[in-house]
Amino acid sequence: MTSIPQFGLGTFRLTGQAAVDSVKTALDLGYRLVDTAQIYGNEADVGQAIAESGVPRDALFLTTKIWTANYARGLLIPSLKDSLTKLRTDHADLTLIHWPSPGNAVPVAEFMGALAEAKAQGLTKRIGVSNFTVDLMRQAIAAVGAGEIATNQIELHPYLQNRKVVDFARSQGIPITSYMTLGYGAVLKDPVIQDIAAAHKATPAQISLAWAMQLGHAVIPSSTRRANLETNMRAQQLHLTDQEMARMASLERNGRITSPEGLAPVWD
Q: Would you give the distance in Å from CA 12 to the centre of its chain?
């Protein structure tokens, strides 16, 4: 089975017409991976945008994520079927566990087993995890095998390079998907990134995205503006020198942005 596309569209914090417009514009520009989640409240909007875009379903890569309330064995598959109804499709290309189960209320083996069953039923082509630490990845691997885990989607940007998780995932052959690759805009003001951007006649956003992809990670930036969607996409054509990659590596500062109380594990 082919791997996950390295570049796609994120839809976090987009709902209603803003979500529909962002997805339709991105698809018009040539995006083919769209990333959503049950908790985003926009699966129906994404489904509408895809239906109105005219892009055939088999040309798309659709990712959604199961919310923590639906992890129990009897709930996960019905919740995914509900997501697919909203998305107007009979399958997802990738379905992720969105966060670890709060307080380990549902054991990793239980929800990974249910997710593997969803794959066996043809509801999703691939399965994976999100916001998982090394320990949680070990538990997921014990449950379904490393080869079954298509990605671990984690916060990763120049200020939070998450090397311990990345190194372990790589050792197991598990690809990383970077979310918040632009650090909510914080890294775009960084003088090092701005300097590298000037050298390439590129935007700081393009440099951050190109850096992550050059490390082998997939990226899913979001925007409601056509111009940004278009320039972000062109990051795929950029190549940073070894020296520039080293300068980017030096920006690590454990600058975590997303760590919701009650959801976040003890980070590595």
A: 10
Q: Can you list the residues of the chain whose pLDDT is less than 70?
A: 1-2
Residue 196: give the domain boundaries. 9-249
Q: How many residues does the chain have?
A: 268
Flag whether 259 is in a domain. Answer: no
> Active-site residue 71, yes or no?
no
Rounded-to-integer distance, Cα 250 and Cα 141, Å:
31
Whether 17 is in a domain gets the answer yes
Who contacts 10 (Cβ-Cβ below 8 Å, separation ≥6)? Answer: 35, 179, 220, 221, 222
User: CA-to-CA distance for 248 and 240, rounded, in angstroms?
Assistant: 10
User: What CATH number should be reported for the domain holding residue 93?
Assistant: 3.20.20.100
Considering 31, 40, 71, 159, which one is annotated as catalytic? 40
pLDDT tens for 128-172 read 999 999 999 999 999 999 999 999 999 999 999 999 999 999 999
